[in-house]
Amino acid sequence: MVYDPPGKVKSFLVSSAGFLLDGYDLSVISFAILFIPRELGLNSIQVGLVSSASLMGMILGSVVLGLLSDRMGRRKLMGLDLMIFTVFAVTSALSQNFLELFLSRLLLGVGIGGDYPLSSSLMSEYSPAKSRGRYLVGAVSMYWIGTLLSAVVNLFLLPLGGDFWRFSFALGAILSVPVIVARLTLPESPRWLISKGRLRGDGIPAQEDENKGVKGLSDLFGRRLLPFLLWVSAVWFLFDVASYGIGLYYPAIFKEFALPSNYEVIYATMVIALGAIAGYIIAEFAVDSLGRRAVLLSGLGAMSLLLGIGGVLKLTGILLVPYFAVFVAMEQWAGAVTLFYPTEIFPTPVRSSAQGFATAVSRIGAVLGVVAFPSMVKALGFSHSLILFAVTSAIAFLMSLFLRETKRRELEEISLGLRERS
After folding, report:
1. Where are the transmembrane segments (predicted)?
2. What is the H or E stretch that residue 292 is in?
3. Number of structural domains in the chain
């Protein structure tokens, strides 16, 4: 049965806006952290904690809101997560010391983390099978639109002086307001309604086909589904170790190894964002034709190869800008699939919970990469650190060989369950 519910364009816009705010926020802090230590008198440990605080908060937010989403529905929580983001984006801008900034960033991360299972599950459930990959990749690509926007904002606010970052943080809160308003008018996911027995009719999947015999968490963590959950989470974890371990430090890398000027660092960040967007544009055409596995394996393989080459050749100076632009373009092929893949293979009753769990595991990898990278560079050197990240990407590549293909197939057909579809 081909099921194509109405409302996919609106769901795409409000879902992708959440990823845009995520990209904006994490990219703003990656440049601001070059200035915040002097303004607030932070030591190196505090700098690491502030840099990774929102990622830590995402671990909690993704699990809690993912669980609640499967119980209460997607719509009821779609505005709440960004309200949390808005409040603590403002308190981040007003922070006067380490503790205030750390707690604000941590709680802001709860809102961002909660948006991952909500937005990706909603988008997956609204998208038609034949083009679901394009919708999902398009939504995730907005992360890098947010990154590009943050660079533009920093470029214009930098002349304000050392506390320009406060205005950058506050702008993030302002950007979230129209998104919250739009989300309040969003209808409930039809597939969630089907799974609860609240939507029936001709041309609509049956409740038993939607649920696949799965009722709740006990089934998700049972022996049938748990191995798949741990496997996809591990792949995403390994990807994020390298992706965030390097990605959150692009401004710092360019500042230390390539470009002395703060303005040059901003321009280089723009180039990186444009490289990522280019990668997503290509992935848009590939994900529903070549398939998820081919796109994921191409991305992880390219990441491992490029990081290995960069480490062996000991790249430095201005060459780091085009090098990382190419790297980040291919990185997005893997990034998009690792993010939305759990929403395709787990059935509706536990889709958001599974996505929340996988997101939390991936953020643990992100925190590990972000916290470890400065120490790795200090102990091993920049080049050897790249090689180590190449190894984690290679392991993720090997694990991804065992993932199943989901392109152009209905969710009730491809999702895992406790019984076969009737």
Report:
1. 12-36, 48-68, 135-158, 164-186, 225-246, 266-287, 294-313, 319-342, 354-376, 382-403
2. helix 292-313
3. 1
Predicted confidence band of residue 98 (pLDDT cuts 50, 70, 90): very high
C-alpha of 192 from chain center: 23
Cα–Cα nearest to 154, from 267, 20, 248, 42: 267
- The dihedral built from the CA positions of residue 38, 39, 41 and 45, taken in this order, carries a sign that is negative
**Is 3 within a domain?**
no
What digits encode the pLDDT tens for the residues 169-212?
999 999 999 999 999 988 999 999 999 999 998 889 999 999 99
Structural domain boundaries enclosing 409: 8-191+203-414
Which pTM does this prediction carry?
0.94
Residue 401 lies in a domain: yes
**Triad 236, 154, 86: Cα angle to 5°:** 65
What is the pLDDT confidence band of residue 6, given thresholds at 50, 70 and 90?
Answer: confident
* Chain centroid offset of residue 362 CA: 9
Residue 1 within a domain: no
